[in-house]
Write a structure and sequence with these properties.
Length: 456
C-alpha cells in the first residue's frame, strides 16, 4: 500500500466515525486553525518573504488577514448555514414537510498554487472543514518555504486522519490524481486544470476549478482618471502582478491614453520609488523560469514606463507597454507578472466585441462615472466577477462568492459558498401518515382533470 493509499484509508476510517459531521467538532477545529495561524504569524511572514519577498504588510493584507477574516466569518455563521432549511411544499403533497440538508462529501483534495500560497491553501480548507470533510492539502512546490510551514503547522495541531498536507512536485500531483477523492478543489492554470478535470472524470468526482485568463481593465471616457490610475497601479502590481485576478491589460480610449500613462507612471514612482527594483518591499518573481518568460514578453511592443529587470534578485519593476496588438506574444497568454500592456479603443461597443471574441475572463474592471455605460458592460460581457471603479477587492468580501466562468473556471467559494461547495445538498420530503390522497394511485380512469388542477 502506497503512502497516499494509507493516508486515504486512515481518513476514510476517521470519516466513518462521524466525528467530522458533529457541528461542535467543526467549530472547535476551525477555532483551533485560527489559533494555529495567530500563533505562527511571524513564521508565516518569514516563509512568504523567502518565497516571494512579500513585505509583512502585504503578507497580512493578502494572505494571513484574509484567512483569519474567512475563519471569523465562518465560525460566526456555521450553525445557521448547517441547520436544515425548511422549504415550501406543493399542495399536491399534502400533508408533507420539505427540508434541505447539507452533508459532507467525505475526503476532499485541495490543490493550491504558489502565488498566494498560504491564502489559497487555507481558505478552501476552511470550507472543507466547515462542511465536515476530511482533507488532503497539496500546496505548490514552487513556494517551498510556505508549503513546508503549512505542512508543519497542520501536523502539529491536527490529526493526520483528519487533515494531511502532502508535499512534492509534479509527480506528487500526478500520484494524488490517480486516487479516488470525494471532492477536488483546484486553483491554478487552465492547462493543469484540464488535467485535473480529466483525472476527476475517472471516478466522476465533483470538482471546483479556480483558473485564470486575461482579465481586462477598461477606462471609460469621463472617468476619474486620477483615481483610476491609482487603483489600477495598486491592483496590477500587487504581488508583482502574480495575481489571478490582476488587470491583465488596459483598454483606454485613444484620446485618453497619454494621460492615463502619465498618471500611472506618477503613481508607480510614488508607490515604489525612482528605482523600484531596489525597493525592498517589491515582491520578486517566483523563480527564474517565470522571470525569463516575463522578460521575453517585454521584447515586443514599446516600454513607456519601467522595464528594468534584475536577474539576481528575480525582480522586474512595474512596467507599462504601448504599441501592443492582439497578435503580440504578451496578448497570447495570461501575463501573471508586473507588465501592463495598453490597447486603444474608439467606442465601448468595440471594447465589448473585443472581449467577447475571446475566452471569458476571471475578472473585469471598469472605471466609469456613467451608470448607463456601467450597466452596458455588466449586461453584455460574461466574466467571473469584478469591480466598478476599483480592482481586486471584490474577492475580499465573504458575503459574495468568488469563481470563474468558461475557461476561467467553474464553481465558487468564499464565505457561505465555501461551505456549500464542499457540501452535498440533500433534499428530504417528510410525509405524514394521517392522510393518503388516492389521486396518484391507479387505476387512473377519470383522474386526469383533477390532476390538471394541481399541476400545470
Amino acid at each position: 500500500m502506497s503512502d497516499i493509499e494509507m493516508i486515504l484509508q486512515k481518513q476514510r476510517d476517521y470519516f466513518k466515525t462521524g466525528k467530522t459531521k458533529d457541528l461542535s467538532f467543526r467549530i472547535e477545529k476551525l477555532k483551533l486553525l485560527k489559533y494555529a495561524i495567530e500563533n505562527n504569524e511571524k513564521q508565516i511572514m518569514t516563509a512568504l518573504e523567502k518565497d516571494l519577498n512579500k513585505s509583512p504588510f502585504e503578507s497580512y493584507e493578502t494572505e494571513i488577514g484574509m484567512v483569519l477574516e474567512e475563519l471569523k466569518f465562518t465560525i460566526k455563521n456555521l450553525k445557521k448555514w448547517a441547520k436544515p432549511k425548511k422549504v415550501r411544499t406543493p399542495l399536491m403533497h399534502f400533508i408533507s414537510s420539505s427540508y434541505i440538508y447539507h452533508e459532507p462529501y467525505g475526503i476532499s483534495l485541495i490543490m493550491s498554487p504558489w502565488n498566494y500560497p498560504f491564502q489559497l491553501s487555507l481558505v478552501p480548507l476552511i470550507g472543507s472543514m466547515a462542511a465536515g470533510n476530511c482533507s488532503v492539502v497539496k500546496p505548490s512546490a514552487y513556494s517551498p518555504n510556505t508549503s513546508e510551514l503549512i505542512a508543519n503547522m497542520i501536523a502539529e495541531y491536527f490529526d493526520k486522519s483528519y487533515i494531511t498536507v502532502v508535499l512534492g512536485g509534479r509527480e506528487a500531483n500526478q500520484d494524488l490524481l490517480t486516487h479516488k477523492f470525494d471532492y477536488i478543489f483546484f486553483t491554478g492554470s487552465i492547462e493543469v486544470g484540464k488535467i485535473v478535470m480529466q483525472s476527476a472524470s475517472k471516478y466522476l468526482t465533483p470538482i471546483t476549478l479556480e483558473l485564470g485568463g486575461k482579465s481586462p481593465c477598461i477606462v471609460d471616457r469621463g472617468a476619474n482618471m486620477q483615481m483610476a490610475a491609482k487603483r489600477i497601479v495598486w491592483g496590477k502590481f500587487l504581488n508583482a502582478g502574480q495575481t489571478c485576478v490582476a488587470p491583465d491589460y488596459l483598454l483606454v480610449h485613444k484620446d485618453d491614453k497619454d494621460q492615463i500613462i502619465n498618471l500611472m507612471g506618477d503613481y508607480i514612482k510614488e508607490f515604489y520609488g525612482d528605482h523600484p527594483v531596489e525597493n525592498k518591499e517589491l515582491p520578486k518573481i517566483i523563480n527564474h523560469k517565470h522571470w525569463a518568460r516575463l522578460n521575453n514578453l517585454m521584447q515586443d511592443g514599446r516600454i513607456v514606463v519601467g522595464g528594468k529587470c534584475h536577474e539576481n534578485t528575480l525582480k522586474i519593476e512595474p512596467t507599462i507597454m504601448d504599441m501592443v496588438s492582439w497578435e503580440h506574444p504578451i496578448m497570447q497568454q495570461e501575463i501573471f507578472g508586473p507588465i501592463l500592456p495598453i490597447l486603444e479603443y474608439d467606442s465601448l461597443e468595440q471594447v465589448i466585441q473585443m472581449i467577447n471574441d475571446r475566452p471569458k475572463p476571471l475578472a473585469l474592471y471598469f472605471f466609469s462615472s456613467n451608470k448607463t455605460n456601467q450597466a452596458k458592460i455588466l449586461k453584455n460581457i460574461s466574466f467571473g466577477g469584478g469591480c466598478i471603479n476599483d480592482t481586486i477587492v471584490h474577492l475580499a468580501n465573504p458575503n459574495m462568492p468568488f469563481g470563474g466562468v468558461g475557461n476561467s473556471g467553474m464553481g465558487e467559494y468564499h464565505g457561505k459558498k465555501s461551505f456549500e461547495t464542499f457540501s452535498h445538498t440533500k433534499s428530504i420530503l417528510k410525509k405524514s401518515n394521517l392522510l393518503d390522497i388516492q389521486l396518484r394511485y391507479p387505476p387512473f380512469e377519470n383522474k386526469l382533470k383533477i390532476l390538471k388542477k394541481f399541476l400545470g
